[in-house]
Amino acid sequence: MLTITKRQAAESLLLELLSEKHHIADKILFFERKYQTEFETFEKRVTERDEDFQIWDDYMEWKAYKNMFTDVLKKIDSIKNEDFAIN
Q1: Which of 10, 42, 62, 75 has an alpha carbon within 20 to 30 A of 21's alpha carbon?
Q2: Neighbouring C-beta atoms of residue 63, cutoff 10 Å
Q3: pLDDT in tens, 30-67
Q4: What is the crossing angle of helices 39-47 and 6-35, to 10°?
Q5: What is d(CA 38, CA 29) in angstroms, rounded to the nearest whole number?
Q6: 9 closest CA partner among 79, 61, 69
Q7: How far apart are CA 47 and CA 71, in angstroms?
Q8: How far apart, in whole angstroms, are the C-alpha atoms of residue 81 and residue 85?
Q9: Taking the model in full, what pTM does it have?
Q10: SS3 per-residue string spanning the chain
Protein backbone atom coordinates (compact mmCIF):
# COMPACT_ATOMS: atom_id res chain seq x y z
CA MET A 1 0.00 0.00 0.00
CA LEU A 2 1.21 3.47 -0.92
CA THR A 3 1.06 6.07 1.81
CA ILE A 4 1.39 9.78 1.16
CA THR A 5 1.32 12.67 3.54
CA LYS A 6 -1.09 15.57 3.43
CA ARG A 7 1.86 17.75 2.46
CA GLN A 8 2.73 15.52 -0.50
CA ALA A 9 -0.89 15.53 -1.64
CA ALA A 10 -1.00 19.32 -1.33
CA GLU A 11 2.20 19.75 -3.34
CA SER A 12 0.92 17.48 -6.09
CA LEU A 13 -2.44 19.24 -6.23
CA LEU A 14 -0.76 22.64 -6.17
CA LEU A 15 1.39 21.73 -9.17
CA GLU A 16 -1.70 20.59 -11.05
CA LEU A 17 -3.56 23.80 -10.18
CA LEU A 18 -0.61 26.00 -11.19
CA SER A 19 -0.49 24.23 -14.54
CA GLU A 20 -4.24 24.76 -14.98
CA LYS A 21 -3.84 28.44 -14.00
CA HIS A 22 -1.14 28.88 -16.65
CA HIS A 23 -3.31 27.22 -19.32
CA ILE A 24 -6.31 29.41 -18.47
CA ALA A 25 -4.17 32.56 -18.38
CA ASP A 26 -2.94 31.73 -21.89
CA LYS A 27 -6.53 31.45 -23.12
CA ILE A 28 -7.45 34.78 -21.54
CA LEU A 29 -4.38 36.41 -23.07
CA PHE A 30 -5.41 35.05 -26.48
CA PHE A 31 -8.73 36.89 -26.28
CA GLU A 32 -7.13 40.07 -24.90
CA ARG A 33 -4.77 40.10 -27.87
CA LYS A 34 -7.47 39.16 -30.38
CA TYR A 35 -9.74 42.00 -29.31
CA GLN A 36 -6.99 44.31 -28.00
CA THR A 37 -8.89 45.01 -24.80
CA GLU A 38 -9.64 43.71 -21.32
CA PHE A 39 -12.64 41.48 -20.67
CA GLU A 40 -14.75 44.12 -18.90
CA THR A 41 -14.48 46.55 -21.83
CA PHE A 42 -15.20 43.77 -24.30
CA GLU A 43 -18.22 42.62 -22.29
CA LYS A 44 -19.71 46.11 -22.33
CA ARG A 45 -19.16 46.40 -26.06
CA VAL A 46 -20.72 43.00 -26.77
CA THR A 47 -23.82 43.55 -24.68
CA GLU A 48 -24.48 46.99 -26.20
CA ARG A 49 -24.43 45.99 -29.85
CA ASP A 50 -26.38 43.81 -32.24
CA GLU A 51 -25.66 40.14 -31.89
CA ASP A 52 -22.70 38.79 -33.84
CA PHE A 53 -22.57 35.05 -33.25
CA GLN A 54 -18.79 34.71 -33.54
CA ILE A 55 -18.18 37.57 -31.13
CA TRP A 56 -20.88 36.26 -28.79
CA ASP A 57 -19.26 32.80 -28.81
CA ASP A 58 -15.90 34.36 -27.98
CA TYR A 59 -17.54 36.37 -25.21
CA MET A 60 -19.07 33.27 -23.64
CA GLU A 61 -15.80 31.34 -23.86
CA TRP A 62 -13.76 34.25 -22.50
CA LYS A 63 -16.23 34.70 -19.63
CA ALA A 64 -15.96 31.01 -18.79
CA TYR A 65 -12.16 31.25 -18.69
CA LYS A 66 -12.39 34.31 -16.43
CA ASN A 67 -14.64 32.35 -14.04
CA MET A 68 -12.36 29.31 -14.16
CA PHE A 69 -9.36 31.54 -13.43
CA THR A 70 -11.06 32.95 -10.34
CA ASP A 71 -11.95 29.44 -9.18
CA VAL A 72 -8.44 28.10 -9.65
CA LEU A 73 -6.98 31.05 -7.72
CA LYS A 74 -9.31 30.24 -4.81
CA LYS A 75 -8.23 26.60 -4.89
CA ILE A 76 -4.56 27.60 -4.93
CA ASP A 77 -5.12 29.85 -1.93
CA SER A 78 -6.89 27.03 -0.10
CA ILE A 79 -3.97 24.68 -0.72
CA LYS A 80 -1.39 27.28 0.31
CA ASN A 81 -3.36 28.04 3.49
CA GLU A 82 -3.79 24.31 4.17
CA ASP A 83 -7.55 24.82 4.12
CA PHE A 84 -8.49 21.41 2.72
CA ALA A 85 -9.16 17.89 3.90
CA ILE A 86 -8.21 14.48 2.55
CA ASN A 87 -10.81 11.73 2.79
Answers
A1: 42
A2: 15
A3: 999 999 999 999 999 998 887 889 999 999 999 999 99
A4: 50
A5: 9
A6: 79
A7: 24
A8: 12
A9: 0.87
A10: CCCCCHHHHHHHHHHHHHHHHHHHHHHHHHHHHHHCCCHHHHHHHHHCCCCCHHHHHHHHHHHHHHHHHHHHHHHHHHHHCCCCCCC
